Amino acid sequence: MKAIQISEFGSNEVLSYTELAEPELNPGQVLIKNQAAGVNPIDWKTCSGGGAAPFIGDLPFVPGWEFAGTVAKIADDVTTFSVGDPVFGFIRFPERAGCFAEYVAAPVDQISLRPAELPVEAAAGLGLAGLTAWQALFDKGNLKASQRVVILAGAGGVGHLAIQLAKWAGAQVITTASAANHDFLTALGADVVIDYHTQKITDHAKDVDLVIDGIGGQVGIEALACVKPGGTLVTLPSATKDEVIAAGDAIKVNVEPIRVEPNSDQLGQLAGLYAEKKLCLNLANTYPLAQVGNAFDESKTGKVKGKLVLTI
């Protein structure tokens, strides 16, 4: 099978488009004929030696944690899926998963059926960002109807999905974005969109129940001032979580870090919302698998509106 593999950590020059053996199928797994894979900042960070690199073990390594395809084989003990089923998933994170490849061996408890209304490219980009948004809003943030939530970096992969999920839950949504993305986010349901280039979030959002901090660092720290007593800030970037937590402790604001976890039930709920047209994924760009370096370069700009996906 064709796959992307790295044999050392580094920049795009370490990415090799190569021929590998199909993965072996273990109990509790299905073999996926892969059609698309999502690209996320964690992918290029890990390939460069950061991100999830400490969890990868010995090289070589096939990157990628999310995919969409069809079931090609099933292990003898699997009864929940059949050959030919359309599926998608977010698997094994932060350990190696190997989704930048033509075939993927996937645990059945970390994948979901893909409804016909969910295109394969959208499904491939929905796992990591969709689960991050879901778990940040509902598992960590305990968001309820009529509450007010600030979502920093609203136009990004996680942000634009979090806006839609928060509105579906009945919350009022305040978000930040450059002026060029205001109409896009308003169309997704944002009630207030703040231009972070010219406006301070603390001037426009006070006493909110929840902040979803997709930026971290000083931006996340400044957003603590928006949170009402008893409220919560969920910070996504792991590199700055300790400093944001410490700043929250200093002013008695609860800060929750998050590492997204695979969850087949939540994937199924996201797919259902997509099928019901209550959730959409903005596909910023697609690249053939062999052009993963170009996808990494676009991701590194930090200006991707929605998600990037590799087609296989």
Q: How would you portray this structure in words?
A:
With 312 residues, the protein is an alpha/beta fold. The protein folds into two domains: 2-114 and 282-311, Quinone Oxidoreductase, Chain A, domain 1 (Alpha-Beta Complex), CATH 3.90.180; 130-257, Rossmann fold, CATH 3.40.50.720. It contains nine helices and 15 strands. The mean pLDDT is 97.
With helices defined by DSSP (H or I, 4 residues minimum), what is the helix count? 9
Structural class: alpha/beta
In terms of per-residue confidence, which ranges show pLDDT below 50 for 5 or more consecutive residues?
none
Name the CATH architecture of the largest domain. Alpha-Beta Complex
Integer tally of domains: 2
Share in β-strands: 25-35%
Mean pLDDT over the full residue set:
97
The CATH topology of the largest domain is: Quinone Oxidoreductase, Chain A, domain 1
Radius of gyration: 19 Å
| Total beta-strand segments | 15
| CATH classification, class level of the largest domain | Alpha Beta
N-to-C CA distance: 11 Å
The CATH superfamily of the largest domain is identified as Medium-chain alcohol dehydrogenases, catalytic domain
Morphology call:
globular
H/E order of the elements? EEEHEEEEHEHEHEHEHEHEHEHE
Q: Helicity level, as a percent range?
A: 25-40%
Largest sheet: 7 strands, mixed
